[in-house]
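Q: My labmate handed me this sequence with no annotations at all. I'd like to see what the chain might look like in three dimensions before we decide whether it's worth expressing. Could you predict it?
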Amino acid sequence: MHAYAVQDSAGLLKLDAMENPHRLSEALQHALGQRLGALALNRYPGARVHDLRQALKTHAQVPEGFDLMLGNGSDELISLLAMACDVPGASILAPEPGFVMYAMSAQLQGLRFVGVPLTDDFELDPAAMLRAIAEHQPSIVYLAYPNNPTANLWDDAAIESIVEAAPGFVVIDEAYQPFAGRSYIDRLHTHSHVLLMRTMSKFGLAGVRIGYLVGPQALIAELDKVRPPYNISVLNAECALFALEHSDIFAAQARDIVAQRGWLLEQLAALPGVRAYRSDANMILLRLPADPQGGSTAAARVFAGMRARGVLIKNVSGLHPSLSNCLRLTVGLAEENRAMLAALKECL
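A: Here is what I predict for the chain of 348 residues:
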């Protein structure tokens, strides 16, 4: 296997990792710095982490009777779920292509991973999913909503059929919820085995590493047994609390990103031979016309050409056979999107 790779972005316009491109204003930077400087760094995290849990429950409108568990990013929560479900014969199932950590967490924990291909248009294949669930009886089914790297929301009826058939947990991963316009949280109370996972990374705090898992109180209490003590630092908790106190600013940033996504999709649609797939996230999946040599050489060539022009995106063509000649673009600020588009046109 390979370790999770992070691309070197020094000196480049960084549009490869679905980060919020907006930074805090100088006034907010100063205010946050004062708060962080006043923390008792000589003490283990305590009450402020509890305060963050309560603030997130309010922010996410967590239903009555449900609770929330914090993770050092969603990645830690995914690992903890694999650990909690590590019993004889356990497996993890998810559509593919999807977030690489679902499969990696299974592999690292020694569990079987079952990947079920999406359709040619990157939609859920309910019949294939139901067959795989019946055959493998997975302990966990992951449904990213929207999906990464394809960026799309899936049909609600298809999701419900999978939820009804699943014998174990169904984890709805809403990492990109700030840009999606839809959430499963209103339906969470209808099922006792569904967990909702979110992160503050796309909210605007990718450097802070806060993920959270929502589920029935009794279920969260059991899962919390495998969580390491003090897994959230006081610095991270305070940053997250500060951001939630200014959630209107981050909501405005999300609206700007959605508007920029619409503009970028219009521009990409005008490029001959290029297919930009529908996006409900802050990224766009792009398929390039194949080179005469075949394979994914066009994606590799365009990726390298854009990097040479100072723009870093993600070449996802090697992640799954259905992603041949595909690139993933992060939606940035207006001027960043114009620079990215200009570089792309030159490379094409």
